[in-house]
Amino acid sequence: MATTLQIIDAVVEHLKVKLPQLAVEYFPEQPAQYRLNHPKGALLVSYLGSQFSTTVDVTYIAQPRTVKLSITVILRQLNGRGGAVDVLDAVRQALVGFRPPDCRKVWIVSEKFLGEAAGLWQYAVDVASEAMQIENADVNTETPLTLVTYEESQ
Description:
Layout: H1 4-18, E1 23-26, E2 41-52, E3 62-75, H2 84-95, E4 107-117, E5 120-134
Parallel strand pairs: 1-2
Antiparallel strand pairs: 2-3, 3-5, 4-5
Helix pairs in contact: 1-2
């Protein structure tokens, strides 16, 4: 079972490969102080949280988990080739169907315009994937099966 950080790392690395013309970074801990140093723009990956479904009926706790991430697109150009609108398409194309470790394929949840400030155009692409949260159980503590019969008991 992959950790949340391993899932985020995989998305960051995948975007670096698919969109090498942009900076791909983790969302900054102090967003108000973030400075775009790249000449074209950046993709900032952040963790939005998870939703958990009811447990699967097995011996151990196993819960389906929907992991939600957001990719903030920050570009110096809005329209045209390489602009924010064009990059949004590229981000969606890169992520839809991508499979992070121990997850199902990524799907798009939403996309929204965040605004423009000082000539920087910002959008957010929210994506999700499903994983399984499994109990960290002690191994070999169960009662072993010692007798097998082929008769039905009435």
